[in-house]
Structure formats: structure tokens, C-alpha cells
Amino acid sequence: MFNYVDFIIAFLIAGITTFLATYLVKKFAVKIGAVDFPNHRKIHTIIKPRLGGIAIFIGSFFGTLYIHPFHEHLPEILLGAIVILITGAMDDLYNIRPVIKLSGQLIAASFLISDGLIIERVTLPIVGMVDLGFASVLITVLWVVGITNAINLIDGLDGLATGVTAIAFLSMFVMAIIDGQYVAAVLCVVFIGANIGFLFHNFYPATIYMGDAGSNLLGYMIAVVSMLGLFKNIALLGFIIPMIVLAIPIFDTLYAIVRRAHQKENIMAADNKHIHYRLMENGYSHRKSVLIIYAFSALFGAMAVMFSNSSLILSFVITVFVLILLHLLAEVSGLVLNGKRPVLNTLHKIFLRKQRGKE
Prior knowledge:
With 359 residues, the protein is mainly α. The chain has helices at residues 4-32, 52-67, 74-94, 98-114, 135-153, 160-179, 182-202, 211-228, 241-245, 247-262, 275-281, 286-308, 312-332, 342-358, and strands at residues 35-36, 48-49, 121-124, 128-131. It has one domain. It contains 14 helices and 4 strands. β3 and β4 (128-131) form a beta hairpin. The termini are far apart.
């Protein structure tokens, strides 16, 4: 069923095409004025082109075209992706209002729902499989819109969203292979390739940003792939798997909503208090802050793969470990306990004792 040679070729096509297309997109973005200006909220100090998402779309499209997989929902997935890409590109060029961006995301979600690609059921311990009924449409909309915006929110440092989504796609690819989800695996492969091709231009110091065209496209595709594969998993607590894969962007989004609501701020307003910014405030360099989040993302991805093939008891153990990892990330970035680091300090003391014991 799986032709791994085709997967490798599709990966290379997506990566090389994105890498080359990015040069053209840079010139095009500058020519039409789709650039990102420095301000008090942003890290960069010089004007940089946006619209990198167009290159990612081109690369992933040609990679998929090579394999040309068949799936009943692919036309609607593509239409939704195009709507998301256009809406994001409009924002990169004109800074459109949030309600217009939301409208584009809802239209994209409506394509999926109208074609029957929805989150129909979840599997719970003891209870078993639960049919969501009428709530399935609402949950599908919330999932697509929520994940699309979650990826958008973490796109604050050079290479951050590109790398985090590549890691997410990689972990979902492994699960798709294990679970025999061919189309989900194909989409993961081409977006991994496209992201790596773009990362050559986007890693610190970036020469181009993916913009909303890219972050929204990647968020949308992660939501779609999870609906094609991860939510179809019949394992206990299977609905938690995509949440583990995307633990960092989901946690950052929820934290931003709670923080802004508590401070009576507009929850749609942008700020510089996300995890990646707090890491830099705590003394980590731009590059090191990105690598720290990469490392945590890889750990969460590995946990998700283990979770997808674990017993009920092991599932709960992994869930607890995921929560501990989230707390450690919060301590590293100074989000909790007024900057205090009790767990990290304890682990550091234990490590020092072991080192002294060896000496």
C-alpha cells in the first residue's frame, strides 16, 4: 500500500520546489509591498518580505501532484486551502480586520463539513466510542479555526512556526503509517518537505516570513490531517492524540486567551507575551529560544506516537508526563510562579548530586 520511494520523491519535490519558489516569492512580496515592518511588538529591526506561505503551498502542491493520491475529500480540502491562502495573503498585504480572516477560515471549514469531513466521534475510557451527533459540526469548526489560529500565534520568531509544524507533521506521519492512513501520510510528507525547503530561508536570521498566508495554511492542513487520521484512531482517549502533538501552540493559545481576559484586553489583539517572547525576556537568544521550543515539540510528538499505541494505564502515565513537560516549559519561559522554577531547580540539584557522586 505504501510506496516509500514515492514518498521520498514527493518529499524532495516539495522541498526543492519550495526552496526555489521562495526566491521568486521574496521579489514578488517586495514588489507589491507585502512586507513586515519593525515595531515595538516584533523582534526584527529591518523590513522583511512576507507571503512565504505561497512558496510552501506551491511546493506541497507539486509534491502531492506527483503521487496524485485519491481521496473523496481532496477537492474540498484543496478549495479550503486556497481560501485560507488567499485570506492570509490579503492580511499580509492589507492587514485586514480579524472578522474577515475569521470569515475565510469559516468558509474553508464549511467546504470540509459540506463534503462530510467532520469529527464524528471520540473514544473515551469506560464509556467507549461516543457519537457526537449534531455537536460534530460545531466541534469540527472549532477545531479547524482553533488550530489555524494557534499556529498563527506561535509564528513570532524566525523559523519557529515552520519548525514546530514540521515536527507536528512528522509525528502525524509516523502515526499515519502505523495506522495505514495513506492520504494523511502523503499530506504529511509533502508539508514536511515544503517546510524544510522554506526553513532554509526562514531560520534565524530569516530573509522572508511565511506570513498569515503560511501560518494559516499550515494550521489548516494540520487540522485537516488530524481529522483524516488521528481522530479516526479507535484507541482509548484517541481524541487527545492531536492535542498532544500540538501541545505547545494549544497551550500558548489558551494561555493568551486567559491572560487577555484577565487583563480585560481584546483576546484577538496581538501582543509580545507569548511563550517564545518570554523565553527571550528570560535571557535566551533568538536562536536558542526557537531550539528550546523545537525540543519540547519533538518530545510532545514522541509522546503522541507512544500514546497512539498504548494501553489505558500507559495512556494516563503519558498524559501526566505531558502535563509535567508543559509545566517545565512554563517554568523555563517564566510564565508561572512569578518566574520561580521549583521543579527545574530540584532537577538541577538532583543532577549535581549525581555528578558529584560519580566524581
